[in-house]
Amino acid sequence: MNNMFNSVKNDILEKIKTSDKIYIMSHIDPDGDSIGSILGLGLSLNRILNKDINIAVNDDIPSNFEFLPIKHIGKINSNDKIDLLITLDCADIGRLGFEEDFLNNIKYIINIDHHVTNTNFGDINIVNHNASSTCEVVYELLEEMNIGLTVDIATCLYVGISTDTGSFKYGNTSSRTHLIASNLLEKGIDIGKINTELYQKRSVGRTKLLMESLNNLELLNNDKVAIVSLTSDMFDRCNSSKKDADSIVDFIRDISTVEVACVLKEVDYEKIKISLRSKEYVDVSKIATEFEGGGHSKASGCTIFSNIEEAKEKILKKILEAI
Ligand code: 5GP
Ligand code: MN
């Protein structure tokens, strides 16, 4: 991996130096890794280069990341002409959440990611499927560039690594991941505070939604498949937002018998966002790509444009074929 950086690091720095309007962005439905990586790379480059690099996401930032320096994350003006776009944690360009016209006007793209389904849409692609997280890839890149980390930047990178590895529980956690986490701790990050902010601040609305989900949980195929449908009415009843559904799929995956967990979320009329998780042997990224989504073998997602009952039927059919 580091050899790969060796050859591209100068290209990246040269491209940044010679471009005017530069944006660092990640996917809609932002998570710890997307927010951690854009802040980690963006703040680092802004610190050492005499450039004004914009950091942006085309979506709202979930409240549990408010302890990070998110004031540096802006929105993007869709009339802006971008000279250089650096995408992080973004498996395909559609995940940025922009219209095609806008994307076609971007002059140069550097794509930095770790998803197996990455489509290599960039002019430069740094995609490491073996990295636990995009934050891990960014750490390696900053190290290769000899850019030192501040406590704030180290905190952002740690957040991405911690959230994408399920707190160092998933198989994507390598010895290198632990070594990097250790180096981040050396920078003086406050691990107690990070974990409290990330994992011990579930709102009442989120908790009610979890209860409602568990009341509606269906277990199929000898309890190997767990599935929950969340309708707009349920979100309203629990006074919760769509973002509050984020960790429900992980919760139901953790039932002992479950191999595949699926949550369907009615985000709009005939627009159903689907989250998939597996535990040991099913590759859910293959299921997600059948619906033009993507992700990782054990965590992926897609959108189905139909009513929630039809969406459930379609995704269940594919899950039962795969299991
Ligand atoms: P989540 O279920 O937490 O939204 O997403 C799980 C994983 O799948 C994440 O790595 C996320 O980036 C990826 N993912 C979720 N939805 C989509 C999608 O619509 N397209 C692609 N390419 N990846 C997705
Ligand atoms: Mn990620």
Order of helices and strands: HEHEEEHEEHHHHHEEHHEEHEEH
Count of beta strands: 12
Q: How would the global form be characterised?
A: globular
Bound molecules: guanosine-5'-monophosphate, manganese (II) ion
User: Can you tell me the CATH superfamily of the largest domain?
Assistant: inorganic pyrophosphatase (n-terminal core)
CATH topology of the largest domain: inorganic pyrophosphatase (n-terminal core)
Please list the strands of the largest sheet in the order they lie side by side.
Answer: 3-2-1-4-5-6
Given as residue ranges, the uncertain stretches (5+ residues, pLDDT < 50) are: none
Question: How many independent structural domains?
Answer: 2
Distance between the termini: 33 Å
What is the CATH architecture descriptor of the largest domain?
A: Alpha-Beta Complex
Tell me the fraction of residues in β-strands, as a range.
15-25%
Question: Structural class of the helix and strand makeup?
Answer: alpha/beta
Determine the mean pLDDT.
Answer: 95
Major sheet: size, sense and barrel closure? Answer: 6 strands, parallel
Domain DHHA1: 239-322
Protein name: Bifunctional oligoribonuclease and PAP phosphatase NrnA
InterPro entries: DDH_dom, DHH_sf, DHHA1_dom, Oligoribo/pAp-PDE_c-di-AMP_PDE
Keywords: Hydrolase
